[in-house]
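Consider the following assembly input.
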Amino acid sequence: DIVMTQSPLSLSVTPGESASISCRSSQSLLHRTGYDYLDWFLQKPGQSPQLLIYLGSNRAPGVPDRFSGSGSGTDFTLKISRVEAEDVGVYYCMQSLENPRTFGQGTKVEIK
Amino acid sequence: EIQLVESGGGVLQPGQSLRLSCTGSGFKFADFAPAWFRQAPGKGLEWVGFIRSAAYGGTSDYGASVRGRATISRDDSRNIAYLQLDSLKIEDSGKYFCTRDGGAEATIKGEDHDFWGQGTLVTVSS
């Protein structure tokens, strides 16, 4: 199975500042199509996960442009620019290159 | 409006079986692979498995923790997917979510895991 490792596991951010979350995979997530099969999700307290970023760097519809994804191969980053109070929750990266889909441990983001 | 709605959760005893349902609406259900994820209380997300569309053979894959005990099936005439889990264990407790997984074209369009149900809670306790 592909092992996904996130860091940090928790983050406390002042509103208006930026935050970055790292996600590393135990093997390359580059598909033969040329896309990296890496997604980012946010799970707000008491809610279902919501897709933020797909294929490493593509924002899902309706996701604010202060969220951006970057990276390729085995190293990926989610950046939140100008953090807002509504961004609190747990962020997960997930690989969808192969089964079983596997997640990082999650990064809990809190607002100072 | 695209929706996925899970049902069938409840309190069961170890060794019993459960059957959860996932009903999709607002999209062509038959073109997608309904996928099940779960989350134990206070823990992270875990992929349970999915069932491919008929165009991709209609076969299922499962996570290691449920393989051999889980069966995912689908009824495209009713836009429903089912998760049956046998020989329940305490560690099967948690919230079970349904989402959709697409083929290659859907993936490139961002239609994988883009909609999730609200989840259904399963508690396995003696």
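The beta strands of chain B are 3-7, 10-12, 18-25, 33-39, 45-51, 60-62, 70-75, 80-85, 94-101, 120-124. Ask yourself how this observation constrains the way the partners meet.
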